[in-house]
Design a protein that fits this description.
about 90 residues; mainly alpha; rod-shaped
Length: about 90
């Protein structure tokens, strides 16, 4: 005897089939995880772009509430300028 009991041929074949099936399962799981990782990276990029756009909109609209005040002051200024216009003398 040279080292220990030898498996029967059918048992050895079952072990090889099991190892092959395990390798296939491991490769499928790896593929699915890689697909998930890429999807997550895509979502992360999209969220970052959306966040940047939101910050830009906020910067551009931070003084929008003052537009009504500016408009009111403009109307007052136009009225004041109209009061100071020289009146033409009607004949």
């Amino acid at each position: 005897m040279s080292g220990g009991p030898r498996l029967a041929a059918r048992d050895e074949r079952a072990w090889w089939i099991s190892l092959g099936a395990g390798l296939v399962v491991a490769l499928v799981v790896w593929g699915l995880l890689e697909r998930l990782r890429r999807a997550v990276l895509g979502v992360d990029r999209d969220v970052e772009d959306l966040w940047t756009a939101g910050k830009q909109v906020a910067q551009q609209t931070q003084a929008a509430h003052q537009l009504s005040i500016v408009r009111a002051r403009g109307v007052e200024l136009a009225a004041e300028a109209a009061r100071h216009e020289p009146r033409s003398e009607e004949a």
